[in-house]
Amino acid sequence: MMYLKVIYSNGNYDTHMGYNHVVAITNYYRVQQERFQSLQDYHDQFIAYRKESEQLGLKVGISENGGSNMLKRMNINNPMQQQKEEADKKAIEEHHTIFFMLGADKYKYGKLIKEMKNDVLRKKDPFPKTIAEACHVLTKWKNHYGGKYNKNKSESNDGIALQQ
Q1: Measuring CA to CA, how many Å separate 97 from each of 26, 44, 103, 123, 129?
Q2: What angle, 0 to 180 degrees and rounded to 10, lies between the N-to-C axes of helices 81-102 and 131-140?
Q3: pLDDT greater at residue 109 or residue 150
Q4: For position 79, what pLDDT does the model report?
Q5: ∠146-149-151 over CA atoms, to 5°?
Q6: 125-136 mean pLDDT
Q7: Looking at CB atoms within 10 Å, which of 64, 92, 146, 158 has the fewest?
Q8: What is d(CA 102, CA 159) in angstroms, rounded to the nearest whole number?
Q9: pLDDT score at 54
């Protein structure tokens, strides 16, 4: 949780709440897997920035129509309150998952992400629904992309252990 310590380290947590919100949201939206960073480290960093934002009360991933769009995809026309809340949670988790996937190492997973983006244009639903599923997809991805930066590499399996 070293990432969470960054925002609290200056001792002005309560005094500069606006600044802390900006730093937290900026960290979250800028997080990307570095070229030689393991998938496990990227996952931990992403989750830490997400938790940091949530602890500060930031509503990352919430949209006005996210839950209703999720209900439409689930073919629920007259939802109960519990179904609305579950749809909102699923929409938020899907937002975080897509964001996680798009931040993955472009050299290792670029072809996969490009294919997923193309599938969205084809009106398919290619993205995993949870971060755990995304990690599973990324660890199993066989990179046959080629290119000058991927010579002598044929797989992208980092071996990640997720804590449930």
Answers
A1: 17, 14, 10, 18, 6
A2: 30
A3: 109
A4: 86
A5: 55
A6: 93
A7: 64
A8: 19
A9: 87
Record the tokens describing residue 47, joined without a space: 């989750």
% of the chain exceeding 90 in pLDDT: 34
Q: Is pTM beyond 0.85 here?
A: no
Report CA dihedral (90, 93, 98, 104) to the nearest 10 degrees: -150
Q: What contacts 24+ positions apart, CB below 8 Å, involve 155-163?
A: 156/105, 156/108, 156/109, 158/38, 158/39, 158/40, 159/39, 159/40, 160/38, 160/39, 160/40, 160/43, 160/135, 161/40, 162/43, 162/132, 162/135
Residue 123 amino acid letter: K
CA pair distance 12, 27, nearest whole angstrom = 18
C-beta separation of 55 from 13 below 8 A: no
